[in-house]
Amino acid sequence: STAEFDVRPGGEVHSFSRSLGDYGCTFTYSAQGGTNEQWQMNVAVSEDSGLFSCSIWRPQGKSYLFFTQFKAEVKGAKIEYAMAYSQAAVGAQSDIPLKQEEFEVAETTVSHREGKFRFELSKLMIVAKTPRDEL
């Protein structure tokens, strides 16, 4: 399920959430510069319900806002893989990942790293493992 939302500059902290069954994803940020940008969030659960994914991105490929902070948090699952990008793929352009030192991945969150993050963000991708009942 994909939803559109506005990323708003102005320096205040905003957040946007989507959930799917027992799982949820929340994107929290503050940004400066320009005007509102339309972004999208997609949440999905694998067919065997073993994985929950959350992607947040700007469909135009690049955000021109200056992000002072960001955090994406998953609920009901533990992060297996997460990546943050300064530019999202569009046309012939490919995703450009942030440098590893610019962000950190914890059990349920991916967030900017204070003092290292260079204020550019256009896409976040998270794949998380859902708690499976042991057979």
Automatic annotation (TrEMBL):
- Membrane spanning stretches: none
Q: Per the UniProt entry, what is one GO biological process?
A: positive regulation of endothelial cell proliferation
- Where does this protein have coiled-coil stretches? none
Q: Which GO terms describe its cellular component?
A: extracellular space
Protein's name in the database:
MYDGF factor
- Identify the species of origin: Erpornis zantholeuca
List the gene name: Mydgf
